Amino acid sequence: MVEVMNRSSPMKRHYRCPRRVLPEYNEFTVSTSTHNDEWQQRLEWTLLARAHVLILEDDEAVRASVIRDLHRRYQKRRDYMPSRVTVPERGTDTALMRHIAASVGLKAQRSRYYHLFQDFEAYCGRQYAADKRALLLIDDAHHLRLNTMRVLHSLSTIVVANDLAVQMVMVGRGEIVKQMQKESWRALESRIGLRMRLPSRETKAA
């Protein structure tokens, strides 16, 4: 089973989406299966509300499987362009931005952070023009530090045609929750509309 904390997105009122999308601070339990309709529906509602998803899992193999399954599922969709990104341990903001650019097939012609960001922003504009939204599937989110967290927050504010053009599903170890509680992390934490904790292996075995 999965513990899920759903919260209301501050962006929800700007977009057309079901009123039930993100009830304020509701806690509930759903199956961990990626084929479970309720799990998929809540994730879908969260993305529709232009909020982000945080999945907590300590097992590296399980995290990789979750990212792989989500990438496969959203590749089949016409309205998203998914890409997989692994947060480098002790990485700089430029290193993370380089990883993100490479994940969507951008060749790093220019090495500075500002230029990499500009290139990715232009990529989002092209995808949006094709009726697609960039979906970043981020593994090892627990490696985020203040500087790299700010990269993700900046990406999450990219706007095309008065609409947010980047969605994120972050997957990482449970320790990231402590980071999210810091005041300096409030900008990114406030954009998370769905938080799930996958069960431990002991729970699965039982």
Number of domains: 1
Architecture (CATH level 2) name: 3-Layer(aba) Sandwich
SS class:
alpha/beta
Distance between the termini: 11 Å
Shape: globular
| Rg calc | 16 Å
CATH superfamily: P-loop containing nucleotide triphosphate hydrolases
> What's the CATH topology name?
Rossmann fold
> Order of helices and strands, N to C?
EEHEHEHHEHEEEHHEH
Q: Give me the number of helical elements.
A: 8
Major sheet strand order:
2-1-9-3-8-5-4
Strand content: 15-25%
Parts with pLDDT < 50 across at least 5 consecutive residues: 1-35, 201-206
Q: What's the CATH class label?
A: Alpha Beta
What does this structure look like?
The protein is an alpha/beta fold and 206 residues long. The chain has a single domain, classed as Rossmann fold (3-Layer(aba) Sandwich). The protein has eight helices and nine strands. The strands form two sheets. A seven-stranded mixed sheet has the order 2-1-9-3-8-5-4, with helices on both faces. Strands 6-7 form a two-stranded antiparallel ribbon. A hairpin with a 2-residue loop joins strand 6 (159-160) and strand 7 (163-164). The chain is globular and about 40 Å long. The model is unreliable at 1-35 and 201-206 (pLDDT under 50).
Secondary structure elements and pairings:
Blueprint: E1 2-6, E2 26-30, H1 37-48, E3 52-56, H2 60-75, E4 80-86, H3 93-103, H4 113-129, E5 133-139, H5 146-156, E6 159-160, E7 163-164, E8 166-172, H6 176-180, H7 186-189, E9 192-197, H8 201-205
Parallel strand pairs: 3-8, 3-9, 4-5, 5-8
Antiparallel strand pairs: 1-2, 1-9, 6-7
